[in-house]
Amino acid sequence: MSRFVKLAGVLGLSIALLLNIVWRIHNGSKLLTFSPPTARMMEKITLFFWPSSFMLMATDGSGALVDLLATVLTLLLNALLYMLVAYIISKIYRRIA
């Protein structure tokens, strides 16, 4: 596996983790609250950079363990998605170059 693909996986995991932390702080406390337009913008940013987060809607209202497992699964799935895109880009680049 190339260094580029590994780096993309780390980037995908880091972005998803950061977005997850931001949303948990927003939803769980008064420390960080978004105005409605900002919340909609953050939703769009989240779906663009963490597309697997869409699956977390199914866990709304479930227990803590299910929520934790689903979050970990979507974080790892996002890393794999970034790695897949990086792998495809690297193959195309190698073919062209």
H/E element string?
Answer: HHH
Mean pLDDT, all residues:
90
Profile the largest sheet: none
Uncertain residue ranges: none
The tally of helices reads 3
Written description of the protein model:
By secondary structure, the chain is mainly α. The chain has three helices and no strands. It has helices at about 5-30, 35-50, 65-95. The protein is elongated, with a radius of gyration of 16 Å. The protein starts with a helix and ends with a helix. The mean pLDDT is about 90.
Describe the secondary structure blueprint for this structure:
Blueprint: H1 3-28, H2 36-49, H3 64-96
Helix pairs in contact: 1-3
Summary, kept brief:
This protein has 97 residues and is mainly α. The chain contains 3 helices and no strands. Helix content is 75%, strand content 0%.
